[in-house]
Write a structure and sequence with these properties.
two-stranded antiparallel sheet; mainly alpha; 97 residues; 2 strands; 6% strand
Length: 97
């Protein structure tokens, strides 16, 4: 995966960089989409309670911030799967694999 140049510093090969950029684009899109869906669900549930109890908006954002680790623990595996499938599908469609 890494090739050594004359100076001893590792260099990423072109094919590795190409595969990673294709995957990371789809991974980022899938992560943003799935995370936003789950976070919006949390916002809607919390907003209903916050309107009834008259709590400030800053507290709502604080609770969303604390909910991010549990949301990301669900969405990162889904985003990896979707990113890999989309990248491999794109490579297959263009005849690169």
């Amino acid at each position: 995966m890494l090739a050594r140049q004359g100076g001893g510093s590792p260099r990423v090969r072109t094919i590795t960089r190409y595969l990673l950029t294709e995957f990371l684009v789809y991974f980022a899109l899938a992560l943003a989409a799935t995370s936003s869906i789950l976070i919006l669900r949390q916002i809607f549930l919390l907003t209903k309670q916050f309107v009834r109890t008259d709590v400030g908006l800053g507290y709502l954002f604080e609770l969303i911030f604390y909910a991010l680790p549990s949301v990301l623990s669900l969405t990162i595996p889904m985003a990896v799967l979707v990113g890999m499938l989309m990248a491999l599908g794109q490579f297959s469609f263009t005849g690169e694999i």
